[in-house]
Write a structure and sequence with these properties.
The complex is a heterodimer of chains A (308) and B (247). Chain A is α/β, with parallel strands linked by helices and 308 residues long. Chain A folds into 2 domains: 5-217, P-loop containing nucleotide triphosphate hydrolases (Rossmann fold); 228-289, Alpha-Beta Plaits (2-Layer Sandwich). Chain A is 35% helix and 28% strand. Chain A contains 10 helices and 14 strands. Chain A has helices at residues 43-50, 72-77, 94-104, 109-122, 138-150, 168-184, 194-200, 239-243, 269-279, 293-307; strands spanning 5-14, 17-27, 32-36, 58-63, 66-67, 79-82, 156-160, 186-190, 203-208, 211-217, 228-233, 248-255, 258-263, 283-288. Chain A is elongated, with a radius of gyration of 23 Å. Chain B is an all-alpha fold and 247 residues long. Chain B has one domain (2-246). Helices cover 81% and strands 0% of the residues of chain B. Chain B contains 10 helices and no strands. The longest helix of chain B is centred in the N-terminal third of the chain and has 35 residues, at 56-90. The radius of gyration of chain B is 20 Å and the shape is elongated. The chains are: A alpha/beta (308), B mainly alpha (247).
Chain lengths: 308, 247
Amino acid sequence: MQPLIRMTGITRYFGQFCAVRNFNLELSQGEILGLLGPNGAGKSTTMRILSGCLGASLGDVWLDGFDLFKEPLQAKQAIGYLPENPPLYPELTVDEYLLFCARLRAVRKSETSAALDRAKALCGLGREGSRLIRNLSKGFQQRVGIAQAIIHKPRVIILDEPTSGLDPNQIIEIRELIRTLGESHGVILSTHILPEVQSVCDRVLILNNGRTVYTEYLAKPGHGKCDRLRVRLACSPGESAMAALQGVVEVTVLGESRFSLLLDDSCSTEAVAKQIIQQDWGLLELVPDKQNLEQIFYRLTTADEVEG
Amino acid sequence: MLAIFLKELRSLFLSPLAWSLMVALQLVLAWLFLVQLEQYLQIQPKLAGLENAPGVTALVIAPLLDSAAMVIMLLVPLLTMGMFSRESGSGALDLLFSSPVSMTAIVVGKYFAVLTLLAIVITLIALMPLSLLLGARPDMGSLAAALFALVLASAAYAALGLWISSMTKQPAVAAVLSYALLLLLWIINLNGSGEIGSPLQQLSLSSHFQRMLSGLVTSADIAYFLLLILTGLILCIHRLERLRIEG
Protein backbone atom coordinates (compact mmCIF):
# COMPACT_ATOMS: atom_id res chain seq x y z
CA MET A 1 0.00 0.00 0.00
CA GLN A 2 1.37 3.37 -0.83
CA PRO A 3 1.79 5.71 2.12
CA LEU A 4 -0.60 8.62 2.47
CA ILE A 5 2.24 10.99 3.15
CA ARG A 6 5.77 10.72 1.98
CA MET A 7 8.18 13.53 2.71
CA THR A 8 11.74 13.10 1.56
CA GLY A 9 14.66 15.36 2.28
CA ILE A 10 12.53 18.33 3.24
CA THR A 11 14.73 21.26 4.13
CA ARG A 12 13.63 24.79 4.75
CA TYR A 13 15.78 27.86 5.13
CA PHE A 14 14.58 31.27 6.28
CA GLY A 15 17.47 33.34 5.05
CA GLN A 16 20.51 31.80 6.69
CA PHE A 17 18.46 30.10 9.39
CA CYS A 18 17.65 26.47 8.75
CA ALA A 19 14.25 25.75 10.30
CA VAL A 20 13.92 22.17 9.09
CA ARG A 21 16.81 20.01 7.94
CA ASN A 22 16.46 16.88 5.86
CA PHE A 23 13.11 15.78 7.22
CA ASN A 24 11.81 12.39 6.12
CA LEU A 25 8.48 10.88 6.93
CA GLU A 26 6.06 8.22 5.79
CA LEU A 27 2.61 7.87 7.17
CA SER A 28 -0.01 5.33 6.23
CA GLN A 29 -3.72 5.17 6.76
CA GLY A 30 -4.87 4.45 10.28
CA GLU A 31 -1.78 5.92 11.86
CA ILE A 32 -1.58 8.81 14.29
CA LEU A 33 1.78 10.49 14.44
CA GLY A 34 2.70 12.89 17.19
CA LEU A 35 5.19 15.58 16.32
CA LEU A 36 7.01 16.74 19.41
CA GLY A 37 9.62 19.33 20.01
CA PRO A 38 10.47 22.39 22.05
CA ASN A 39 9.29 25.78 20.83
CA GLY A 40 10.99 26.73 17.61
CA ALA A 41 12.00 23.17 16.78
CA GLY A 42 10.36 23.35 13.36
CA LYS A 43 7.07 21.58 14.06
CA SER A 44 4.84 24.24 12.61
CA THR A 45 7.16 24.84 9.68
CA THR A 46 7.06 21.15 8.84
CA MET A 47 3.29 21.09 9.05
CA ARG A 48 2.95 24.21 6.95
CA ILE A 49 5.15 22.70 4.26
CA LEU A 50 3.13 19.50 4.40
CA SER A 51 -0.14 21.39 3.99
CA GLY A 52 1.09 23.44 1.07
CA CYS A 53 1.04 26.75 2.95
CA LEU A 54 4.79 27.13 2.70
CA GLY A 55 7.33 26.13 0.11
CA ALA A 56 10.31 23.93 0.90
CA SER A 57 13.86 24.87 -0.01
CA LEU A 58 14.66 21.27 -0.89
CA GLY A 59 12.88 17.95 -0.96
CA ASP A 60 9.62 16.41 -2.07
CA VAL A 61 6.19 15.91 -0.57
CA TRP A 62 3.81 13.26 -1.85
CA LEU A 63 0.26 13.31 -0.57
CA ASP A 64 -1.96 10.37 -1.43
CA GLY A 65 0.21 9.68 -4.46
CA PHE A 66 0.30 13.24 -5.77
CA ASP A 67 3.35 15.48 -5.79
CA LEU A 68 2.40 18.50 -3.70
CA PHE A 69 4.68 20.85 -5.61
CA LYS A 70 3.77 19.67 -9.11
CA GLU A 71 0.09 18.75 -8.73
CA PRO A 72 -0.94 20.93 -5.81
CA LEU A 73 -4.66 20.88 -6.47
CA GLN A 74 -5.01 17.09 -6.44
CA ALA A 75 -2.61 16.72 -3.53
CA LYS A 76 -4.40 19.34 -1.43
CA GLN A 77 -7.70 17.59 -1.96
CA ALA A 78 -6.33 14.88 0.31
CA ILE A 79 -5.57 17.07 3.32
CA GLY A 80 -7.37 18.87 6.06
CA TYR A 81 -5.22 21.31 7.96
CA LEU A 82 -5.70 23.10 11.24
CA PRO A 83 -2.99 25.76 11.60
CA GLU A 84 -1.73 27.00 14.91
CA ASN A 85 -4.27 29.83 14.85
CA PRO A 86 -7.53 28.48 13.51
CA PRO A 87 -8.15 30.23 10.16
CA LEU A 88 -11.57 31.65 10.94
CA TYR A 89 -13.67 34.49 9.60
CA PRO A 90 -15.19 36.13 12.67
CA GLU A 91 -17.95 37.83 10.71
CA LEU A 92 -19.50 34.55 9.55
CA THR A 93 -21.65 32.11 11.48
CA VAL A 94 -20.38 28.60 12.08
CA ASP A 95 -22.68 27.22 9.37
CA GLU A 96 -21.72 29.85 6.82
CA TYR A 97 -18.07 29.28 7.54
CA LEU A 98 -18.25 25.50 7.26
CA LEU A 99 -20.32 25.80 4.10
CA PHE A 100 -17.61 28.00 2.61
CA CYS A 101 -14.94 25.46 3.60
CA ALA A 102 -16.94 22.62 2.10
CA ARG A 103 -17.32 24.49 -1.19
CA LEU A 104 -13.67 25.42 -1.14
CA ARG A 105 -12.75 21.74 -0.89
CA ALA A 106 -15.17 20.82 -3.66
CA VAL A 107 -17.60 18.81 -1.55
CA ARG A 108 -20.51 17.86 -3.83
CA LYS A 109 -23.59 20.04 -3.48
CA SER A 110 -25.82 17.10 -2.62
CA GLU A 111 -23.46 16.07 0.16
CA THR A 112 -22.75 19.46 1.69
CA SER A 113 -25.44 19.52 4.31
CA ALA A 114 -24.65 15.97 5.43
CA ALA A 115 -20.95 16.87 5.60
CA LEU A 116 -21.79 19.94 7.69
CA ASP A 117 -23.89 17.94 10.14
CA ARG A 118 -21.28 15.25 10.44
CA ALA A 119 -18.41 17.66 11.07
CA LYS A 120 -20.46 19.60 13.62
CA ALA A 121 -21.54 16.43 15.40
CA LEU A 122 -17.98 15.11 15.58
CA CYS A 123 -16.68 18.37 17.00
CA GLY A 124 -19.54 18.96 19.40
CA LEU A 125 -20.84 21.99 17.54
CA GLY A 126 -24.35 20.68 17.00
CA ARG A 127 -26.05 23.65 18.61
CA GLU A 128 -23.65 26.42 17.63
CA GLY A 129 -24.47 26.41 13.91
CA SER A 130 -26.11 29.80 13.77
CA ARG A 131 -23.77 31.60 16.15
CA LEU A 132 -21.24 34.12 14.94
CA ILE A 133 -17.70 32.82 15.16
CA ARG A 134 -16.70 36.15 16.70
CA ASN A 135 -18.89 35.39 19.73
CA LEU A 136 -17.64 31.87 20.35
CA SER A 137 -15.22 31.10 23.15
CA LYS A 138 -11.66 30.14 22.33
CA GLY A 139 -12.43 26.47 22.86
CA PHE A 140 -15.36 26.52 20.48
CA GLN A 141 -13.36 28.44 17.91
CA GLN A 142 -10.74 25.72 18.13
CA ARG A 143 -13.47 23.14 17.50
CA VAL A 144 -14.67 25.06 14.47
CA GLY A 145 -11.07 24.96 13.28
CA ILE A 146 -11.03 21.20 13.61
CA ALA A 147 -14.44 20.86 11.96
CA GLN A 148 -13.09 22.84 9.04
CA ALA A 149 -10.21 20.40 8.68
CA ILE A 150 -12.39 17.29 8.52
CA ILE A 151 -15.42 18.53 6.65
CA HIS A 152 -14.37 17.05 3.30
CA LYS A 153 -13.28 13.70 4.79
CA PRO A 154 -9.66 14.20 3.83
CA ARG A 155 -7.37 11.19 3.90
CA VAL A 156 -4.72 13.09 5.83
CA ILE A 157 -5.48 15.35 8.76
CA ILE A 158 -2.84 17.75 9.96
CA LEU A 159 -3.47 19.33 13.33
CA ASP A 160 -1.12 21.93 14.75
CA GLU A 161 -1.65 21.98 18.50
CA PRO A 162 -5.29 20.93 18.34
CA THR A 163 -5.90 21.08 22.07
CA SER A 164 -4.45 24.50 22.80
CA GLY A 165 -6.90 26.78 24.54
CA LEU A 166 -9.30 24.02 25.49
CA ASP A 167 -10.49 23.16 28.99
CA PRO A 168 -9.68 19.71 30.40
CA ASN A 169 -13.03 18.21 29.44
CA GLN A 170 -12.76 19.49 25.93
CA ILE A 171 -9.21 18.17 25.70
CA ILE A 172 -10.47 14.70 26.52
CA GLU A 173 -13.23 15.01 23.93
CA ILE A 174 -10.85 16.21 21.27
CA ARG A 175 -8.39 13.40 22.01
CA GLU A 176 -11.25 10.98 21.69
CA LEU A 177 -12.15 12.58 18.38
CA ILE A 178 -8.57 12.34 17.12
CA ARG A 179 -8.46 8.67 18.06
CA THR A 180 -11.69 8.07 16.13
CA LEU A 181 -10.36 9.98 13.14
CA GLY A 182 -7.14 8.01 13.31
CA GLU A 183 -8.96 4.80 12.55
CA SER A 184 -9.90 5.77 9.04
CA HIS A 185 -7.48 8.61 8.25
CA GLY A 186 -3.83 9.36 8.65
CA VAL A 187 -3.36 11.98 11.34
CA ILE A 188 -0.37 14.13 12.19
CA LEU A 189 -0.59 16.28 15.25
CA SER A 190 1.90 18.52 16.91
CA THR A 191 1.86 19.37 20.54
CA HIS A 192 4.11 19.96 23.46
CA ILE A 193 1.89 18.11 25.87
CA LEU A 194 3.71 14.80 26.26
CA PRO A 195 0.93 12.75 27.88
CA GLU A 196 -1.26 13.72 24.95
CA VAL A 197 1.09 11.98 22.59
CA GLN A 198 1.22 8.93 24.82
CA SER A 199 -2.53 8.69 25.04
CA VAL A 200 -3.36 9.35 21.41
CA CYS A 201 -0.50 8.57 19.07
CA ASP A 202 0.78 5.36 17.54
CA ARG A 203 4.08 6.88 16.74
CA VAL A 204 6.13 9.76 17.95
CA LEU A 205 8.67 11.90 16.22
CA ILE A 206 10.77 14.38 18.13
CA LEU A 207 12.24 17.37 16.40
CA ASN A 208 14.96 19.57 17.78
CA ASN A 209 16.53 22.50 15.99
CA GLY A 210 14.99 21.34 12.75
CA ARG A 211 16.37 17.81 12.92
CA THR A 212 14.56 14.58 13.60
CA VAL A 213 16.18 13.29 16.76
CA TYR A 214 13.85 10.45 17.65
CA THR A 215 11.17 8.42 16.01
CA GLU A 216 9.52 5.40 17.55
CA TYR A 217 6.29 3.44 17.62
CA LEU A 218 4.56 3.69 20.95
CA ALA A 219 3.11 0.66 22.62
CA LYS A 220 -0.55 1.18 23.33
CA PRO A 221 -1.25 1.26 27.04
CA GLY A 222 -2.10 -2.23 28.24
CA HIS A 223 -0.24 -3.87 25.40
CA GLY A 224 3.24 -5.19 25.41
CA LYS A 225 5.43 -5.94 28.36
CA CYS A 226 7.03 -3.36 30.48
CA ASP A 227 10.69 -4.05 30.93
CA ARG A 228 11.48 -1.43 33.49
CA LEU A 229 10.10 -1.02 36.98
CA ARG A 230 10.46 1.72 39.49
CA VAL A 231 10.28 0.68 43.12
CA ARG A 232 10.33 2.48 46.43
CA LEU A 233 11.04 0.54 49.58
CA ALA A 234 10.61 1.29 53.27
CA CYS A 235 13.85 -0.38 54.32
CA SER A 236 16.43 -0.37 51.62
CA PRO A 237 18.58 -3.48 51.20
CA GLY A 238 21.10 -1.69 49.00
CA GLU A 239 21.90 -1.86 45.34
CA SER A 240 23.63 -5.21 45.30
CA ALA A 241 20.76 -6.97 47.02
CA MET A 242 18.38 -5.58 44.46
CA ALA A 243 20.61 -6.73 41.63
CA ALA A 244 20.60 -10.22 43.10
CA LEU A 245 16.86 -10.57 42.54
CA GLN A 246 15.98 -13.13 39.94
CA GLY A 247 15.31 -11.69 36.52
CA VAL A 248 16.78 -8.27 37.26
CA VAL A 249 19.48 -7.35 34.79
CA GLU A 250 20.40 -3.90 35.92
CA VAL A 251 19.69 -1.63 38.86
CA THR A 252 19.85 2.14 38.82
CA VAL A 253 19.71 3.99 42.07
CA LEU A 254 17.30 6.89 41.75
CA GLY A 255 17.50 8.12 45.30
CA GLU A 256 17.45 6.86 48.84
CA SER A 257 15.58 3.52 48.72
CA ARG A 258 14.32 4.27 45.20
CA PHE A 259 15.48 2.07 42.36
CA SER A 260 14.85 1.55 38.72
CA LEU A 261 15.06 -2.11 37.70
CA LEU A 262 15.65 -3.42 34.22
CA LEU A 263 14.07 -6.85 33.81
CA ASP A 264 15.10 -9.52 31.40
CA ASP A 265 12.62 -10.72 28.79
CA SER A 266 11.45 -13.79 30.65
CA CYS A 267 10.79 -12.08 33.94
CA SER A 268 7.34 -10.70 34.71
CA THR A 269 6.38 -7.82 36.94
CA GLU A 270 4.50 -10.13 39.30
CA ALA A 271 7.60 -12.30 39.83
CA VAL A 272 9.67 -9.33 40.93
CA ALA A 273 6.93 -8.01 43.19
CA LYS A 274 6.60 -11.41 44.81
CA GLN A 275 10.34 -11.62 45.50
CA ILE A 276 10.47 -8.18 47.06
CA ILE A 277 7.58 -8.96 49.34
CA GLN A 278 9.11 -12.25 50.36
CA GLN A 279 12.29 -10.40 51.31
CA ASP A 280 10.15 -8.17 53.52
CA TRP A 281 11.74 -4.91 52.31
CA GLY A 282 8.54 -2.97 52.81
CA LEU A 283 7.38 -2.33 49.26
CA LEU A 284 5.81 1.13 49.08
CA GLU A 285 5.63 1.74 45.37
CA LEU A 286 5.96 -0.30 42.23
CA VAL A 287 5.26 1.39 38.92
CA PRO A 288 6.09 0.49 35.37
CA ASP A 289 8.89 2.78 34.34
CA LYS A 290 8.28 3.33 30.67
CA GLN A 291 11.55 4.76 29.44
CA ASN A 292 9.15 7.51 29.36
CA LEU A 293 8.74 10.07 26.74
CA GLU A 294 9.44 12.84 29.15
CA GLN A 295 12.93 11.58 29.85
CA ILE A 296 13.65 10.90 26.22
CA PHE A 297 12.36 14.29 25.28
CA TYR A 298 14.40 16.02 27.92
CA ARG A 299 17.54 14.12 27.05
CA LEU A 300 17.28 14.68 23.32
CA THR A 301 16.25 18.29 23.35
CA THR A 302 18.69 19.54 25.93
CA ALA A 303 21.78 17.57 24.88
CA ASP A 304 22.10 19.72 21.83
CA GLU A 305 22.21 22.93 23.77
CA VAL A 306 25.22 21.70 25.72
CA GLU A 307 27.03 20.73 22.54
CA GLY A 308 26.02 23.73 20.55
CA MET B 1 -13.62 30.44 -7.40
CA LEU B 2 -17.36 30.71 -6.95
CA ALA B 3 -17.06 29.79 -3.28
CA ILE B 4 -14.53 32.56 -2.70
CA PHE B 5 -16.59 35.05 -4.67
CA LEU B 6 -19.74 34.33 -2.68
CA LYS B 7 -17.94 34.37 0.65
CA GLU B 8 -16.21 37.68 -0.10
CA LEU B 9 -19.40 39.27 -1.30
CA ARG B 10 -21.12 38.15 1.88
CA SER B 11 -18.27 39.47 4.01
CA LEU B 12 -18.36 42.80 2.19
CA PHE B 13 -22.05 43.24 2.83
CA LEU B 14 -21.86 41.93 6.37
CA SER B 15 -19.49 44.71 7.33
CA PRO B 16 -20.92 48.16 7.89
CA LEU B 17 -17.99 49.52 5.89
CA ALA B 18 -19.49 48.82 2.49
CA TRP B 19 -22.87 50.21 3.49
CA SER B 20 -21.48 53.38 5.03
CA LEU B 21 -19.26 53.98 2.03
CA MET B 22 -22.23 53.61 -0.29
CA VAL B 23 -24.26 56.04 1.79
CA ALA B 24 -21.45 58.59 1.90
CA LEU B 25 -20.84 58.33 -1.82
CA GLN B 26 -24.49 58.68 -2.67
CA LEU B 27 -24.86 61.68 -0.39
CA VAL B 28 -21.87 63.55 -1.75
CA LEU B 29 -22.69 62.85 -5.38
CA ALA B 30 -26.34 63.76 -4.96
CA TRP B 31 -25.29 67.13 -3.60
CA LEU B 32 -22.86 67.68 -6.46
CA PHE B 33 -25.55 66.66 -8.92
CA LEU B 34 -27.97 69.19 -7.50
CA VAL B 35 -25.37 71.95 -7.59
CA GLN B 36 -24.49 71.19 -11.20
CA LEU B 37 -28.14 71.12 -12.13
CA GLU B 38 -28.82 74.42 -10.45
CA GLN B 39 -25.93 76.10 -12.23
CA TYR B 40 -27.14 74.69 -15.50
CA LEU B 41 -30.60 76.07 -14.92
CA GLN B 42 -29.12 79.50 -14.21
CA ILE B 43 -27.13 79.68 -17.41
CA GLN B 44 -29.68 77.90 -19.57
CA PRO B 45 -31.31 81.12 -20.91
CA LYS B 46 -27.93 82.38 -22.14
CA LEU B 47 -27.14 79.04 -23.76
CA ALA B 48 -30.39 79.16 -25.68
CA GLY B 49 -29.05 82.02 -27.77
CA LEU B 50 -25.82 80.28 -28.72
CA GLU B 51 -25.22 78.14 -31.72
CA ASN B 52 -23.82 74.65 -30.90
CA ALA B 53 -24.23 75.32 -27.22
CA PRO B 54 -23.10 72.52 -24.85
CA GLY B 55 -26.08 70.56 -23.62
CA VAL B 56 -27.06 69.02 -20.34
CA THR B 57 -24.79 66.02 -20.94
CA ALA B 58 -21.64 68.11 -21.13
CA LEU B 59 -22.60 70.57 -18.41
CA VAL B 60 -24.20 68.33 -15.81
CA ILE B 61 -23.47 64.67 -16.46
CA ALA B 62 -19.79 64.88 -17.38
CA PRO B 63 -18.77 66.90 -14.31
CA LEU B 64 -20.88 64.62 -12.11
CA LEU B 65 -19.24 61.45 -13.38
CA ASP B 66 -15.86 63.12 -13.24
CA SER B 67 -16.37 63.75 -9.54
CA ALA B 68 -17.77 60.25 -9.17
CA ALA B 69 -14.50 58.83 -10.49
CA MET B 70 -12.65 60.82 -7.84
CA VAL B 71 -14.97 59.84 -5.01
CA ILE B 72 -14.86 56.17 -6.03
CA MET B 73 -11.09 56.43 -5.99
CA LEU B 74 -11.38 57.46 -2.35
CA LEU B 75 -13.72 54.56 -1.68
CA VAL B 76 -12.06 51.62 -3.40
CA PRO B 77 -8.88 51.43 -1.28
CA LEU B 78 -11.08 51.23 1.80
CA LEU B 79 -12.89 48.27 0.28
CA THR B 80 -9.83 46.45 -0.97
CA MET B 81 -7.48 47.22 1.90
CA GLY B 82 -8.58 44.23 3.96
CA MET B 83 -9.06 41.74 1.14
CA PHE B 84 -5.72 40.03 1.70
CA SER B 85 -4.02 41.95 4.49
CA ARG B 86 -6.61 41.02 7.09
CA GLU B 87 -6.42 37.35 6.18
CA SER B 88 -2.68 37.27 6.11
CA GLY B 89 -2.68 38.99 9.50
CA SER B 90 -5.19 36.59 11.08
CA GLY B 91 -3.77 33.48 9.48
CA ALA B 92 -6.95 32.75 7.56
CA LEU B 93 -4.91 32.81 4.37
CA ASP B 94 -3.66 29.35 5.38
CA LEU B 95 -7.17 28.05 4.86
CA LEU B 96 -7.07 29.18 1.24
CA PHE B 97 -3.50 28.04 0.70
CA SER B 98 -4.18 24.54 2.04
CA SER B 99 -7.34 24.16 -0.04
CA PRO B 100 -7.40 22.78 -3.53
CA VAL B 101 -7.84 26.15 -5.24
CA SER B 102 -5.37 27.96 -7.44
CA MET B 103 -3.96 31.38 -6.62
CA THR B 104 -5.70 32.72 -9.71
CA ALA B 105 -9.05 31.48 -8.44
CA ILE B 106 -8.47 33.14 -5.07
CA VAL B 107 -7.53 36.49 -6.58
CA VAL B 108 -10.18 36.49 -9.28
CA GLY B 109 -12.87 35.37 -6.84
CA LYS B 110 -12.10 38.24 -4.52
CA TYR B 111 -11.76 40.67 -7.40
CA PHE B 112 -15.20 39.84 -8.75
CA ALA B 113 -16.69 40.35 -5.31
CA VAL B 114 -15.33 43.91 -5.22
CA LEU B 115 -16.43 44.46 -8.81
CA THR B 116 -19.97 43.37 -7.96
CA LEU B 117 -20.14 45.89 -5.17
CA LEU B 118 -18.75 48.59 -7.45
CA ALA B 119 -21.29 47.66 -10.12
CA ILE B 120 -24.04 48.30 -7.60
CA VAL B 121 -22.44 51.62 -6.66
CA ILE B 122 -22.18 52.70 -10.29
CA THR B 123 -25.74 51.63 -11.00
CA LEU B 124 -26.87 53.86 -8.15
CA ILE B 125 -24.81 56.72 -9.53
CA ALA B 126 -26.20 56.14 -13.03
CA LEU B 127 -29.70 56.67 -11.70
CA MET B 128 -28.93 60.38 -11.17
CA PRO B 129 -28.19 61.30 -14.80
CA LEU B 130 -30.94 58.93 -15.92
CA SER B 131 -33.41 60.87 -13.78
CA LEU B 132 -32.82 63.77 -16.18
CA LEU B 133 -34.81 61.79 -18.72
CA LEU B 134 -37.86 63.05 -16.86
CA GLY B 135 -37.39 66.57 -18.16
CA ALA B 136 -34.52 66.66 -20.65
CA ARG B 137 -32.98 64.67 -23.42
CA PRO B 138 -29.38 63.88 -22.51
CA ASP B 139 -27.11 62.37 -25.14
CA MET B 140 -27.44 58.67 -24.36
CA GLY B 141 -24.33 57.78 -26.33
CA SER B 142 -22.14 60.14 -24.34
CA LEU B 143 -23.74 58.99 -21.13
CA ALA B 144 -23.03 55.35 -21.97
CA ALA B 145 -19.42 56.20 -22.84
CA ALA B 146 -18.97 58.09 -19.59
CA LEU B 147 -20.48 55.29 -17.50
CA PHE B 148 -18.30 52.78 -19.31
CA ALA B 149 -15.28 54.90 -18.45
CA LEU B 150 -16.37 54.96 -14.83
CA VAL B 151 -16.70 51.17 -14.77
CA LEU B 152 -13.27 50.70 -16.32
CA ALA B 153 -11.62 53.18 -13.97
CA SER B 154 -13.25 51.60 -10.91
CA ALA B 155 -12.22 48.15 -12.07
CA ALA B 156 -8.65 49.38 -12.43
CA TYR B 157 -8.69 50.94 -8.96
CA ALA B 158 -9.93 47.64 -7.52
CA ALA B 159 -7.27 45.55 -9.24
CA LEU B 160 -4.47 47.79 -8.02
CA GLY B 161 -5.98 48.01 -4.54
CA LEU B 162 -6.19 44.22 -4.35
CA TRP B 163 -2.55 43.91 -5.30
CA ILE B 164 -1.46 46.37 -2.66
CA SER B 165 -3.60 44.61 -0.08
CA SER B 166 -1.58 41.47 -0.66
CA MET B 167 1.64 43.26 0.20
CA THR B 168 1.04 44.02 3.86
CA LYS B 169 -0.58 42.59 6.95
CA GLN B 170 -2.05 45.92 8.00
CA PRO B 171 -5.17 47.12 6.22
CA ALA B 172 -4.42 50.77 7.00
CA VAL B 173 -1.02 50.54 5.34
CA ALA B 174 -2.65 48.96 2.31
CA ALA B 175 -5.15 51.83 2.13
CA VAL B 176 -2.45 54.51 2.35
CA LEU B 177 -0.31 52.87 -0.31
CA SER B 178 -3.31 52.38 -2.58
CA TYR B 179 -4.20 56.08 -2.25
CA ALA B 180 -0.65 57.02 -3.08
CA LEU B 181 -0.57 54.84 -6.17
CA LEU B 182 -4.01 55.80 -7.47
CA LEU B 183 -3.55 59.52 -6.86
CA LEU B 184 -0.18 59.43 -8.52
CA LEU B 185 -1.63 57.65 -11.54
CA TRP B 186 -4.39 60.24 -11.62
CA ILE B 187 -2.17 63.30 -11.50
CA ILE B 188 0.99 62.07 -13.13
CA ASN B 189 0.19 64.15 -16.23
CA LEU B 190 0.21 67.42 -14.31
CA ASN B 191 3.79 68.20 -15.27
CA GLY B 192 4.76 71.14 -17.42
CA SER B 193 4.68 69.76 -20.94
CA GLY B 194 1.15 68.36 -20.92
CA GLU B 195 1.31 67.67 -24.64
CA ILE B 196 -0.90 64.86 -25.83
CA GLY B 197 1.03 61.67 -26.46
CA SER B 198 3.83 62.30 -23.98
CA PRO B 199 4.68 59.20 -21.91
CA LEU B 200 3.32 60.71 -18.71
CA GLN B 201 0.07 61.55 -20.45
CA GLN B 202 -0.12 57.98 -21.67
CA LEU B 203 0.46 56.71 -18.16
CA SER B 204 -2.08 58.92 -16.52
CA LEU B 205 -5.48 57.60 -15.55
CA SER B 206 -7.11 60.97 -15.90
CA SER B 207 -6.14 61.66 -19.49
CA HIS B 208 -7.63 58.35 -20.63
CA PHE B 209 -10.64 58.80 -18.43
CA GLN B 210 -11.31 62.37 -19.57
CA ARG B 211 -11.24 61.35 -23.20
CA MET B 212 -13.86 58.67 -22.64
CA LEU B 213 -15.88 61.02 -20.48
CA SER B 214 -16.17 63.43 -23.37
CA GLY B 215 -17.81 60.63 -25.36
CA LEU B 216 -14.78 59.47 -27.31
CA VAL B 217 -14.31 55.71 -26.83
CA THR B 218 -11.09 54.50 -28.41
CA SER B 219 -9.57 51.08 -28.25
CA ALA B 220 -6.34 52.62 -26.95
CA ASP B 221 -8.11 53.92 -23.87
CA ILE B 222 -9.94 50.66 -23.29
CA ALA B 223 -6.66 48.79 -23.69
CA TYR B 224 -5.04 51.08 -21.13
CA PHE B 225 -7.63 50.24 -18.50
CA LEU B 226 -7.60 46.53 -19.29
CA LEU B 227 -3.83 46.54 -19.02
CA LEU B 228 -4.00 48.23 -15.65
CA ILE B 229 -6.49 45.64 -14.45
CA LEU B 230 -4.43 42.72 -15.73
CA THR B 231 -1.25 44.17 -14.27
CA GLY B 232 -2.86 44.54 -10.87
CA LEU B 233 -4.28 41.02 -10.86
CA ILE B 234 -1.14 39.33 -12.15
CA LEU B 235 1.07 41.17 -9.69
CA CYS B 236 -1.34 40.14 -6.95
CA ILE B 237 -1.21 36.47 -7.96
CA HIS B 238 2.58 36.57 -8.05
CA ARG B 239 2.77 38.31 -4.75
CA LEU B 240 0.56 35.66 -3.09
CA GLU B 241 2.53 32.86 -4.68
CA ARG B 242 5.70 34.35 -3.23
CA LEU B 243 4.03 34.85 0.12
CA ARG B 244 3.10 31.19 0.15
CA ILE B 245 6.50 29.91 -0.92
CA GLU B 246 8.67 32.23 1.12
CA GLY B 247 6.46 32.45 4.19
